[in-house]
Amino acid sequence: MMYFIIAKRLMLGGLTVADATNLRREHRGELIRIAKDYRFNTTAVIFNIPVETCLARNTARKRRVPEEALLDQYSLLEKTMRTIEKEGFHNVYVLDADSQSNVSVRIARSVSRRSPQSAP
Fold this sequence. Notes:
By secondary structure, the chain is mainly α. The protein has a single domain, classed as Rossmann fold (3-Layer(aba) Sandwich), CATH 3.40.50. The chain contains five helices and two strands, in the order H-H-E-H-H-E-H. The radius of gyration is 17 Å and the shape is globular.
């Protein structure tokens, strides 16, 4: 469902953010493929937070993630960090515990890279 919605937004020329962990290469690959289909650039933002911080934040949550699941996700993050630069993203930004608090984002006008369609 998420991929369908992303494709429709890109088809309409809209700025689109896939706010998901996407720690599996095949999931990221599908997002890259959809963006290429509609000729949009892709950017990955990775929150590289120490596992100890993740575990501490998790214990403070009302709805906790099982520790085993969190450690599995962290293992996938470490694998992602080794491969993501070669996966085809136009930009990759890695934010650590310090930089995530100081980052600012400026969103420019979203421009589709699609070729104009011929009039019927």
